[in-house]
Structure formats: C-alpha cells, structure tokens
C-alpha cells in the first residue's frame, strides 16, 4: 500500500467493521427500487404492471449476471431483484458491502446469508409467494379502478379483508378475467439461470496454400436464460440440478 496508508491516520481503518460473509453460505444480494411507487407515477407507468419496466429490470439483471460470474441464479419481480452468489465464491474476500455495492446502483440493497439448499429454496419461494400475493391484489385493484370506475380509495375499501378466492371471483364474475391466464411473467416473476446451448456457427476458413472453405463449428456456450416458472415446487430444481451445490 501507499505511503498515505501508513501515516498516523491509518488507525481510522480499524473503525471499519468486518463484514466478511460466513463461509459455505449462499450469499443473496436483494435490490429493491427506492420509493418506486412515486417513481412509477412520475414516469406514468402502466398499472398495475408496466411491461417495459419489467423488461428493463430483467435486461439490467442479465447484465449484472453476465458481468459477475459467481452469480448462479437471480430472481426478480416488481421493483426488486435477488442475486445469489455461489457458496464457494471468494469474490472480494466475501465482503458483504463490496458484493452489494457492485450489484447495486439506484436501489436499496441487503446481503443475507443462507447456509443450506433448503434455506435458499425457501428464500426464493418467499419472494415468489410475495409476487403472487401482490400481483393478484394489484390486478384486481387496478381493474376495479380502470374498468369498474371506482376511485382508488373505493377500490381499497372494496378489497379490505378479501381472500385470494374472493379476488379471483371479482375478476371472473365482474370483469370476465381469468387470473390463471394472466401472463406468467406477472404471476411468477423472472428467474435468470445459466444454460448451456450448442451453438452452430459457419466459419470461413482459409488455410495456407488452400482455398477458402465454409465450415460449421458447434460449440457449447453458457447463456443467461430467463424463465417465468414456479420455483416453489421441486420440479424446477430437479430440472436444473446444476444451480445448487450439495
Ligand atoms: P479496500 O478494498 O479494503 O477498500 P483498497 O483496495 O481500497 O482496499 P487502498 O489501500 O485504498 O485499498 O488502495 C487502493 C489501491 O488502488 C492502491 O493500490 C492504489 O495505488 C490504487 N489506486 C487508487 N487510485 C489509483 C489511481 N488513480 N491510479 C493508480 N492506482 C490507483
Ligand atoms: P420502498 O422505497 O420502501 O421500496 P416503494 O415505493 O419502492 O418503497 P415497494 O414495496 O418496493 O415500495 O413497491 C414497489 C412499487 O412499485 C409498487 O407500488 C409497485 O406496484 C410498483 N411497481 C414495481 N414495478 C412496476 C411495474 N413494472 N409497473 C408498474 N408498477 C410497478
Ligand atoms: Mg482505496
Ligand atoms: Mg421499492
Ligand atoms: Mg419492492
Ligand atoms: Mg478499493
Ligand atoms: Mg478502498
């Protein structure tokens, strides 16, 4: 380190707390848009779900995942995205604030450690359950406002104390909307994972003392793939056994 670092002022470094993440845990960094409720109004988002915004979130998360190789799965819904670092990651010596700030920009964030596969699956299930509950509520709420002519206050009053079944019933009997046929991206959120794809490219080969030749080359490439599927049941994990470590 520099001469500055060795000055009499160096002791202030000891005021920093050690935020090294416990070894052998999955490290989850969850980002959530700050005051997004207001942001969506200022930017006139379509309610309850602006698909351009969801697409932008997903595209941004994909860039983060492509940039930070130790991320094994990412899950997003609404204005939030969770990024899961592999258990064995040694990136930035597992320092929580380093990991979080490298993932984050205009988002609040937190770092949480999950020691077991069960804990991590439950974490993602928790976020997806949150997605479902909120999206069902928001879908009925905004349908009551946009198609039912209620004020936002009236819609809120109407939905007080209603269960999921009641909300499905309002949508179906009053507005002829079957919640089950709503887009999966809204009901399930977005899960990003690495997938191997065989890619075939045609290459123009020119060997010395030979004529040009068209050749097809097949190579396996890792690509970030988006899914809008259920991650609460075991099926997703059975179909993608490489994400989690034993
Ligand atoms: P920590 O990760 O704990 O914050 P650090 O990496 O910030 O540690 P520092 O002691 O702050 O460690 O050192 C920063 C490093 O970056 C030093 O090696 C320094 O020489 C280098 N560095 C910073 N700014 C420049 C610059 N403009 N040009 C070249 N090197 C730089
Ligand atoms: P905080 O700063 O506490 O997170 P917030 O206003 O961001 O406050 P959240 O609980 O994070 O509150 O809720 C996110 C808000 O953004 C909700 O009102 C949600 O409806 C809205 N929102 C998120 N994504 C979209 C979208 N794609 N289209 C329309 N509205 C959205
Ligand atoms: Mg420095
Ligand atoms: Mg928010
Ligand atoms: Mg949120
Ligand atoms: Mg530094
Ligand atoms: Mg530094």
Structure explained in plain terms:
- Helices cover 37% and strands 24% of the residues.
- It has 246 residues and is α+β, with helices and mostly antiparallel strands.
- Strands 4-1-3-2-5-6 form a six-stranded antiparallel beta sheet, with helices on both faces.
- Strand 2 (71-77) and strand 3 form a beta hairpin.
- The chain is globular, with a radius of gyration of 24 Å.
- 23% of the residues are buried.
- The structure holds adenosine-5'-triphosphate (2 copies) and magnesium ion (5 copies).
- Residues 32, 78-80 line the site of one magnesium ion.
- Its cofactor is Mg(2+).
- Residues 9-112 form the tRNAHis guanylyltransferase catalytic domain.
Explain briefly what this protein structure is.
Helix content is 37%, strand content 24%. The chain has 8 helices and 6 strands; from the N terminus they run βααββαβααααββα.
CATH architectural group = 2-Layer Sandwich
The CATH superfamily bears the name tRNA(His) guanylyltransferase (Thg1)
- Per CATH, the class reads Alpha Beta
The total strand number stands at 6
Unreliable parts: none
Q: Looking at the structure, what is the overall shape?
A: globular
- The spatial strand order of the largest sheet comes to 4-1-3-2-5-6
What is the percentage of strand-forming residues?
15-25%
Which sheet architecture does the biggest sheet show? 6 strands, antiparallel
In this entry the ligands are: adenosine-5'-triphosphate, magnesium ion
CATH names the topology as Alpha-Beta Plaits
Query: What average pLDDT do the residues reach?
Result: 93
Rg value: 24 Å
How far apart the termini lie comes to 39 Å
How many alpha or pi helices?
Answer: 8
Kindly name the structural category.
alpha+beta
SSE string? EHHEEHEHHHHEEH
How helical, in percent, are the residues? 25-40%
How many structural units, i.e. domains? 1
Function: Adds a GMP to the 5'-end of tRNA(His) after transcription and RNase P cleavage.
Domain Thg1 C-terminal: 119-232
Family: Belongs to the tRNA(His) guanylyltransferase family.
Protein name: tRNA(His) guanylyltransferase
């Amino acid at each position: 380190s520099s001469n500055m670092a060795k000055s009499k002022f160096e002791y202030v470094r000891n005021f920093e707390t050690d935020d090294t993440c416990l070894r052998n845990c999955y490290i989850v960094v969850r980002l959530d848009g700050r005051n997004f409720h207001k942001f969506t109004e200022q930017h006139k988002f379509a309610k309850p779900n602006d698909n351009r915004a969801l697409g932008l979130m997903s595209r941004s998360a994909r860039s983060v995942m492509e940039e930070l190789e130790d991320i094994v799965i990412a899950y997003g819904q609404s204005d939030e995205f969770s990024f899961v670092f592999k258990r064995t990651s040694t990136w930035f010596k597992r320092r929580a604030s380093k990991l979080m700030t490298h993932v984050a920009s205009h988002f609040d964030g937190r770092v949480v450690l999950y020691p077991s596969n069960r804990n991590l699956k439950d974490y993602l299930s928790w976020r997806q359950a949150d997605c479902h509950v909120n999206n069902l509520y928001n879908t009925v709420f905004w349908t009551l406002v946009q198609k039912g002519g209620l004020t936002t206050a009236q819609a809120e009053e109407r939905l007080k104390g209603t269960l999921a079944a009641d909300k499905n019933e309002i949508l179906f009997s009053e507005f002829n909307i079957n919640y089950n046929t709503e887009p999966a991206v809204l009901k399930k959120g977005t899960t990003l994972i690495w997938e191997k794809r065989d890619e075939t490219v045609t290459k123009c080969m020119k060997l010395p003392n030979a004529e040009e030749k068209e050749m097809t080359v097949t190579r396996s490439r890792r690509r970030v793939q988006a899914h809008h599927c259920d991650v609460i049941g075991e099926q997703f994990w059975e179909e993608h056994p490489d994400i989690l470590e034993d």
